[in-house]
Amino acid sequence: MVMNCTRTSTSCELLKQVFQKIDAQSCPKVFNFHMHTVHSDGRLQPSALMEQAIAIGLEGLAITDHHNIGGYLAAQAWLEDWKWKNPHSNIPYLWSGTEINANLLDNEVHILAYAFEANHSSIKPYLQKSAVTGREYQAVNVIAAIHEAGGLAVLAHPARYRRSHFDLIAAAAEQGIDGVETFYAYNNPSPWKPSPTESQQVQQLASEYGLFNTCGTDTHGLNLLQRL
């Protein structure tokens, strides 16, 4: 199992422990590591997202808006206020997160970054609300930047690209990726559930390459229990 977190932090160490336990039942009611707000292409306000997360009973989550952490910062501020007003309630753990476009095997893929230091200079180019170009757009450099910021890098929905997930996961592993979004609902079923064939294949590849398994609804609409 890869153990990146070069600038080891409590947040990153805790996330590694969680990722080691993720299975097909983890999402969407225990953990959720892929969701969007109005700060990118989602419809949820960060406050509404957090209200849902608490109502669902999530133990932990990450908001992964594209190329920015505006939703995460707003949700973090809301959660701090909520903790103060509800001192005896169960509090979900909110990790930093973002979704970054990158080039891998001449295909555009999305890399999810988690538990990074939000103010670290290495991650700043990827938090400007639009995709980068040139050298910074290469997956190997995206992954390196996430690691330098003390975070973990995960290949999002690996079976959704033009290139086979068998090829992409092998290449991402070679370039230092920490995990893959194993449990993902590719056909937007209702209720949400991971696509069995793809999830099984990706889980096998994760095992083969020593990668973490993660899960997420990739919510863009108003319901954290659905993708759209």
Describe the overall structure.
With 228 residues, the chain is α/β, with parallel strands linked by helices. The protein is 31% helix and 16% strand. It has 6 helices and 8 strands. The chain has helices spanning 10-19, 46-56, 70-85, 139-148, 165-174, 196-209, and strands spanning 31-32, 60-62, 93-95, 97-104, 107-114, 152-155, 179-183, 212-215. The strands form 2 sheets. It has a 5-stranded mixed sheet. A 3-stranded parallel sheet has the order 1-2-3, covered by helices on one side. Helix 5 (165-174) packs parallel to helix 6. The longest helix has 16 residues, at 70-85. The mean pLDDT is 96.
Would you summarize the structure shown here?
The chain has six helices and eight strands. The protein is an alpha/beta fold and 228 residues long.
Using brief descriptors, characterize the structure shown.
alpha/beta, five-stranded mixed β-sheet, three-stranded parallel β-sheet
Task: Summarize the topology.
Elements: H1 10-19, E1 31-32, H2 46-56, E2 60-62, H3 70-85, E3 93-95, E4 97-104, E5 107-114, H4 139-148, E6 152-155, H5 165-174, E7 179-183, H6 196-209, E8 212-215
Parallel strand pairs: 1-2, 2-3, 6-7, 7-8
Antiparallel strand pairs: 4-5, 5-6
Helix pairs in contact: 2-3, 5-6
